[in-house]
Each structure stands twice: as C-alpha cells, then as structure tokens.
Amino acid sequence: MTEQTKKFPEGFLWGGAVAANQVEGAYNVGGKGLSTADVSPNGVMYPFDESMESLNLYHEGIDFYHRYKEDIALFAEMGFKAFRTSIAWTRIFPNGDETEPNEEGLEFYDRLFDELLKYNIEPVVTISHYEMPLGLIKKYGGWKNRKVIDCYEHYAKTVFTRYKEKVKYWMTFNEINMVLHAPFTGGGLVFEEGENKLNAMYQAAHHLFVASALAVKAGHDIIPDAKIGCMIAATTTYPMTPKPEDVLAAMENERRTLFFSDVQARGAYPGYMKRFFKENGITIEMAEGDEDILKENTVDYIGFSYYMSMVASTSPEDLAKTEGNLLGGVKNPYLESSEWGWQIDPKGIRITLNTLYDRYQKPLFIVENGLGAVDVVEEDGSIQDDYRINYLRDHLKEVREAIADGVDLIGYTSWGPIDLVSASTAEMKKRYGYIYVDRDNEGKGTLSRTRKKSFYWYKKVIETNGESL
Ligand code: BG6
C-alpha cells in the first residue's frame, strides 16, 4: 500500500478534547455546587481538602466559562470538526440529588453548544468526566452506593432532553476503568479503615456499568440518532519477554481494562472476571434485572484515551518503574519518555486500535492523545513546540496505518487543544495545547491566549484531512 492510498475517511471528526473541571473555572458561579475536583488541590490521585485552604488551580481553570467564545473561535480557525468537553454535573445538580435542575447551569451549556454549532463544530459530550458532586459522596459514599445510579440517570435524562437537538455524540463516563486506579476521582470512593477496597471498587464499577447502560437506554429513547459510547483509558501491555508467564501477565493486565469495555460493549461480565472475583473473595451485589439492563443497552462506539503503552513482567529484576496517567508500570527499554515519565509509543496506538476493533467490531473514537510538556515562550513571544508536533505526527501516522488495516474510526480529538490544568498533578506547567495560556503553577498570569507553532501544523493537518502530517 502506498502512502497516497492510506487516507483518513471523509467526514473524519478532527478536533480536541477537554474536561469541564480542567478548563471552566468559575467553580462557585451560576449556582454550581462543589465537585471532587474543587476539593482536590493536588489532582486526581489525592483525597480531598474540604477546608479549601490550599491553592486549587481548578477553581479558576483557564476561565473557559467566561472565555469560551474566544477559545472556540480559535478552534474554528484551526478547522475543528469536533470538540469534546464534559458537562459539570454540579452546574446542573449542585448536590447531585435534587429533583429540579439548575437552569443557569443548563443555559451555560446551551450557549456553549450553540457557539460550537455556529462554526459547524460537532459537540462530543462526556456526561461525567472525573468529577462528581461532593454532595453525593457525603450523603451516599459515592459510587459505592446504588442510590447514585438513580441520581446519575436523572442527570443524564435531563441533559439528553435539554440538548437533544444540539448534541449527537455522547460518552457516559470518562476513563471508567480508572475507578480501580484513582478511586476518589473515578468513583467518589473514600475508604473506611479495614474496608475491603478491592471489593468496594468492583462494586462501584458495577454501579457505574448499570448507570451507563441506563444512560444508553435513555439516550436512545430521547435522541434516536444519538451515538453513545463508553470511554476507557487504554492500557495496551507488552510482555517483557516471550516467557509464557510474561505473556500471560500482559494479557491479565490488559484484561483489567478490557473488562470494562467488555461489559459495556458486549453486555455481560466475562468469564475471566467471574474467576477473578471468586479467587479474590469479591462479591458483587446485583439487583434483579441488572444483567438484562447490561445486555440490552450496549454502547454504539468505543471511545478511548491513549498516551502510552505498558509492559508486564514476572521477573522482579525487571521492575524499573515508569510513570503514567494514574498508572505506573515496568519500564520499556525500547521507548523514550516524556518529561513526566510517560513512555512514548506511537506504534502502540495502531496496536490498540486493532485490538479494540478485532474484539468488538464497533466504531472506535480516539478521544484523547497528546504530549504534556513544558513550553518556553521565546523573546519574540512565539512558542516553538516541535516536540509536540513530532509526538502527534508520529501517532497520527500510525492511526492512518490502523485505518488502512481496516479499523473503523470516527475521529481523533487530541487532549487539551488549549493548555489546561492537568488531572493527575493539578498543574499548569504540564501543557498539551496548540494554544498557550498565560497561567503558571502559582495561579499567576494574564490568562491571555497565544497560538503555538503546533497550532498552524494541526490546522494544516485538518485542512488536508490528514494528508499533510
Ligand atoms: C486522562 C484524563 O487520563 O489524561 C484527562 O481523561 C487528563 O482528564 C489526561 O488530563 C492527561 O493527564 P494529565 O494528568 O497529564 O492531565
């Protein structure tokens, strides 16, 4: 196959992705309640500081709440076809369990989606991205409690009904598998002393599955032409050696993630998880009818984030550690790492796309990919982020290969098209954007926006539908 015959499909959704809590700021404006992010000064790995005394960059974010028009105009200038963001649950239901939604919150997203549609940018909406109302944690213990399913279903129905004419692409939960790795942010879980954490996390996962399936059902009823997807953090894992034990360990590591998409895309708990539960003394409480709900309401597409690959080894001497988005792992000697220690593996995105497509035969959507790096503003005010361009180009070349392999791919929304507050470490210094935002880790800066070199590169990529990479 020649380079010329490898193409991105017509209508491919090029764009960028953010999350409400990492950009909007205005954490106490417009009737918004407190969410997990508002009390997580150090990012998703840490439990909360309800006193709110520490500096918390999420509170102001990049002030997208007030500057979204200016930012969307820049996305439009790059030619975005799609923009992924989330709705802050606490703008709609400040405590999470109210019956009536907060009209001011609903109006904000009306304005935001209208602004996108004005430029023919397709909104792609995550219903819950790493923030849940603090009220639901205090009152019910987060996703440990079945009651939260009702609150989420009510929230999902509210936003489907309100935005049914504006939003067709939805995702139920961001990186749903992270409930196992960042239980506070992924599931609002705070453990009691002596509690069986593993059991609590899998019980929360079950509630997330049922809630997600009920949202898929409601979404299809309310918006017949909606596409509702799941979203996992891909954890493609290589064996350190061809030793069968390492190969098995790699498979098991992948299954800890694929379990989530298996349930959401195939509609049932896989046999390997039933075995895992039995061997680890885990009991999942299910209500009558749960299994039918899961079976009858599978997702339309698989959304996923991809930043790196992982390695599994059964030899203790291999355990040189590396960092990752909430997941560390064994170091791969063949890969370079980012400044934050995340291993850079463009081929891994092709492998991931093929694995997921072979397994589910459903459309895929890359809804996050990108490089977090320190940027330097030159004396002339420019930002020469060639390292970011290289990362994205190398990955997109492999995406194009995967499409040539036969993978059905809806689109590509790179993470953080505009600099934002990072999730795992809650800092501004780790930048992903094509657009620079003047704000530092101390919260100082004018918040002004500047086009980086990558801005012009990505514009060209979109203009040529990926022919010029
Ligand atoms: C994903 C999350 O895990 O990775 C995003 O969905 C997050 O919310 C992104 O921002 C990058 O991670 P970080 O920690 O660099 O912000």
UniProtKB/TrEMBL annotation:
Active-site residue numbers: 368 (nucleophile)
Entry EC no(s): 3.2.1.86
Keywords carried by this UniProt record: Glycosidase, Hydrolase
Organism: Bacillus licheniformis (strain ATCC 14580 / DSM 13 / JCM 2505 / CCUG 7422 / NBRC 12200 / NCIMB 9375 / NCTC 10341 / NRRL NRS-1264 / Gibson 46)
InterPro entries given in the database record: GH (IPR017853), GH_1_N_CS (IPR033132), Glyco_hydro_1 (IPR001360), Glyco_hydro_1_AS (IPR018120)
Listed PROSITE patterns: GLYCOSYL_HYDROL_F1_1 (PS00572), GLYCOSYL_HYDROL_F1_2 (PS00653)
Annotated protein name in UniProt: 6-phospho-beta-glucosidase
Classification via PANTHER family: 6-PHOSPHO-BETA-GLUCOSIDASE ASCB-RELATED (PTHR10353:SF122), GLYCOSYL HYDROLASE (PTHR10353)
Catalytic activity: 6-phospho-beta-D-glucosyl-(1->4)-D-glucose + H2O = D-glucose 6-phosphate + D-glucose
Swiss-Prot/TrEMBL GO biological process terms: carbohydrate catabolic process
Gene encoding the protein: bglH
Gene Ontology cellular-component terms listed: cytosol
Family per similarity comment: Belongs to the glycosyl hydrolase 1 family.
Class of this enzyme: hydrolase
Source organism superkingdom: Bacteria
Highest classification ranks of the organism: Bacteria, Bacillati, Bacillota, Bacilli, Bacillales
GO MF terms held by the record: 6-phospho-beta-glucosidase activity
